[in-house]
Input
Amino acid sequence: MVFPVSAALLDALVLSVVAKEDTYGYKITQEIREAMEMSESTLYPVLRRLMKNEYLASYDQEYIGRNRRYYKITEKGIEQLKIYRDEWLVYKEKIDSLITEPSDEEVNQ
Amino acid sequence: MTRDEYLKELDSHLISLPKEERDLAVRFYEEYFDEAGPENEQAVIEDLGKPFSLARSIIGETSLYSKSEVYLNYKASKPMPQNNASVFASLKKPEAFEQAEQPAPDMAEDIMPQNMPTQEQKGEYHEQSAAHEQNKGMFDDFYTHGNTESTPPPKQQKKPISGGWLAFWIILGVFVGIPLACGIIPAIFAILAAMFAVGIAGAACVVGAVCAVIVGIVNIPSSIAFGLSCIAAGIFTAGIGFLMLSGALSFFFRLLPFIYKGIVKLCKRGDV
Output
């Protein structure tokens, strides 16, 4: 991807993925990778940061004889995600208004 | 490299982290390998990069926690259209604290009014800033751990002199030092005076020699023998005079400074 991804955007993405349902590290990486390139080394620091900020909590669940660590979003995380979503809309619109090629109609006006 | 080797190496590079952090990180990647399955082991290793650089990214994020938090908080504290009570409550205080401390010129306007601490928030500010300090401490820790070779160990503090030793040195000073000083100091003065005298005598010889040469030249017409012997004696005396003078001069201007420097050096070494 040509556009760099900021820490805040990663936080927002991970929060969004976990907000849908409780999930585990490997799956979070796979989901985010559907939207953009991301190294497998990226996720762990993001998760730690979100945990320390208490936006995420974790619990262990057994899965075929071993433990799987699940992450779930906290109340604080939900609030933070709302902030990110609002911010994202504002940001997206502003960038779009600058970067998007104007349609024919707009050009004619 | 196999998965186990990879994890072991990763663990060894995380040595500067607290045990708990370290175990968490290794456990995460252990689980990650499990999820990916043995068939993807090499692909995962390749994507994760060298254990060392992975460790750096983990350590960086863990130790610089306060830094990323600052960033989060800045984002969170930006004014927004739907800024209601709940949003405001979720603003990160440490960010606001830092921003308030050193507002960037372009951000100051929109951030400052919002984040003016109200009475009930001030307490939290202090708490959070203490947490910040702690985080910084962690960071410093990491650095000192990481760079032990490059930072010299702190100098050993001088041991305080105990009472017994102090008495010993005083007695030594009184019974040995004072008599010794009584002998040495006059001796030094005597040497200085003697060398000074040699210098003066040398100068006098030179002056006398010049006079003798002049007298000799003046007397050559009347008595060649007397004149020539006067000149010869004059030149001979001049030689002796110059020798004495240069001896005295080099004593005062070269040997003394050299001795002085030596003594200063000795004293300094004694200090350390």
Observations:
- Helices of chain A lie at 7-20, 25-35, 43-52, 75-99, 104-108.
